[in-house]
Structures are given as C-alpha cells and as structure tokens.
C-alpha cells in the first residue's frame, strides 16, 4: 500500500473525527483543501487535527 503525507501551515485549527467507513474532509478555512480518507484506513474512530 502507498503512504502519503501532507503538511499545511496555517494559524487556525480544525478537528475532525473519522471512523472505519472513511470520510472526505473539506477545510472550512481553505475551500480548495480536501482530504479523502478511504474506508478501512482506521479501525476505530480517529481524531484528525489540521492546524
């Protein structure tokens, strides 16, 4: 499988919870920044923070 990492620098913080079903996270600060998390990435709920 392929691992990818993204680094984004900004002054505000957003938090999201992602479960085993995956999710598509749309930033409230930058509408062009979207993170697609496929199903099965996490086994249980995980809290993701963008800062």
Care to describe what's here?
This protein is mainly beta. It has one domain (14-50). It is built from no helices and 4 strands. It has strands at residues 14-18, 23-26, 34-37, 46-50. It has a two-stranded antiparallel ribbon.
Identify the notable features of this structure and list them briefly.
51 residues; mainly beta; two-stranded antiparallel ribbon; globular; 4 strands
Tally of individual helices: 0
Strand percentage: 35-45%
The portion of residues assigned to helices is: under 10%
Distance between the termini: 27 Å
How are the SSEs placed, and which strands pair?
Elements (H helix, E strand, L loop, with lengths): L13 E5 L4 E4 L7 E4 L8 E5 L1
Q: Quick summary of this structure?
A:
The protein has strands at residues 14-18, 23-26, 34-37, 46-50.
């Amino acid at each position: 499988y392929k691992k990818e990492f993204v680094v984004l620098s900004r002054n505000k913080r957003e938090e999201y919870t992602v479960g085993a079903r995956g999710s598509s996270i749309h930033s409230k600060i930058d509408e062009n920044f979207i993170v697609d998390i496929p199903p099965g990435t996490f086994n249980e709920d995980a809290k993701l923070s963008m800062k």
